[in-house]
Amino acid sequence: MKNFFFLWCVYLFSTTMFSQAGHIMQGVGSVNMSMGGAATAQPLDISGALHWNPATISTFDDTILKLDVGLFFSSPELSSTVPEFDGEGQPTGNFYSGTTKDDRGVSPMPALAMVWGKPESKHTFGASVFGISGFGVTFPESMSNPINMPQSMGGFGRVESDYMLLQIGLAWAYELTDELSFGIQPTLDYAALELMPNPTANPTQAGYPSTDKASALGFGGQVGLFYNSHSGIKAGVSYKTTQYFGDFELDNTYLDGTTGTNSFNMDYPAILSFGLGYSLGTIDLALDYRIVDYENTDGFSAVGWTQTASVQGFGWKNINIVSAGLQYKGINKFPIRVGYTYSSNPIDSDVAFFNIPATAIIKNAFQVGFSYEFSDKFTMDALYHYGSSGGSTSGPLLNPQFAQAYPPYGAIPGSKVSYDMTTSMIGIGASIKL
């Protein structure tokens, strides 16, 4: 029975790098990240333009190639408190608490983009390969934290995970007028997932299994409009459709050596973005507002236990994201940028246990960056990001066997699971005009 106490904590480990705004990385590439991810109406580089509003690539008339690599560091901490029971299964009145720190290390986040067009043409084209989501954590087995105790003692033991989502896009923008552009971008996605242990599988007497790495393909698209007054004021709107994935087919191995399989579907949510931009002299300003539709996304909309004590989904609410950035170009060949990102939390306390994976959400993120223009054709960029969850997400541990006595999910009296983190990222990028 104690195994159920910690079930969904495992899923925490499957979403650690979903650590910017829910399941959404706040930006792509060093320039866009340093502007807080704001680019729907202020295309300062091709990566941010392709990711947030394909219509904005109409501002680029050259053939441009851009490569970015980010090194992502996180410092998650997982804490738990459980009541102690006597030999007859009755609470003793004592509690057992502990904290485990992640020792995973660094996760890379790549981004490759290209646009091409001509000044006399109304058409601009683009292609991109972006790592838009990913995670990986390692919480070692520990006798000092109930969750990381061996499964035979009611915990989950060592917890490891790897997840990545790679998105490929092909974009086309058309200048309807001198001020207004339209853009469209179909996307193809590849995701891979590995869990140790796997809470989406049915438990046996041996506990919950570990998985081999599984993959899934997805598809979707994006459309956008971009208005440039050519007197400083800019505006944009874009809509990313849901990225529809096939199921992860997970091959499971239990601690007693038995095997099994299960399927789990996790799509990528639709995003509606509105943006304003303003450019005057040496200053560029950008402000974006986004709505992320988790409530209609497979893997996130469902919540609770199945009849076999596996987990249905996250049970997330929709979130709001605000991104803002400023670029100063007063120093010759050396533009400087600062950015800020705010994200609301999709998790209610009553389902916090199901979402310990998602408590890695970063509420406040701060960025600084700069570029150096070596020539008219070659520029290098640098970024530093720091984010904080703004406190822990916490709630009671849940047990399906207690659901009748403590509906709807079986909250264990006196128990608590909490998770918080900080993140940092160093990024570099290079842009070449061919």
Q: Quick one: biggest sheet?
A: 14 strands, antiparallel, barrel
Helix/strand structural class = mainly beta
Outline the low-pLDDT stretches: 1-19
Note the overall shape: elongated
What is the tally of beta strands? 24
| Gap from first CA to last CA | 63 Å
CATH superfamily: Outer membrane protein transport protein (OMPP1/FadL/TodX)
Helix content: under 10%
Q: Class, according to the CATH hierarchy?
A: Mainly Beta
Which SSEs are present, and which pair or pack?
Blueprint (H helix, E strand, L loop, with lengths): L1 H4 L3 H4 L16 H6 L11 H7 L11 E11 L2 E9 L5 E11 L4 E12 L5 E17 L19 E17 L4 E17 L13 E2 L2 E15 L4 E8 L3 E2 L2 E6 L5 E6 L5 E11 L2 E11 L9 E3 L5 E4 L4 E10 L7 E8 L20 E10 L4 E11 L4 E3 L20 E5 L1 E12 L1
Antiparallel strand pairs: 1-4, 1-24, 2-3, 2-23, 4-5, 5-6, 6-7, 7-9, 8-12, 9-10, 9-11, 10-14, 12-13, 14-15, 15-18, 16-17, 18-19, 19-20, 20-21, 21-24, 22-23
Give a verbal description of the structure.
Helix content is 5%, strand content 51%. It contains four helices and 24 strands. The strands form four sheets. A 14-stranded antiparallel barrel has the order 1-4-5-6-7-9-10-14-15-18-19-20-21-24. The chain has a four-stranded antiparallel beta sheet with strand order 3-2-23-22, with no helix packed on it. A three-stranded antiparallel beta sheet has the order 8-12-13, with no helix packed on it. It is elongated. The termini are far apart.
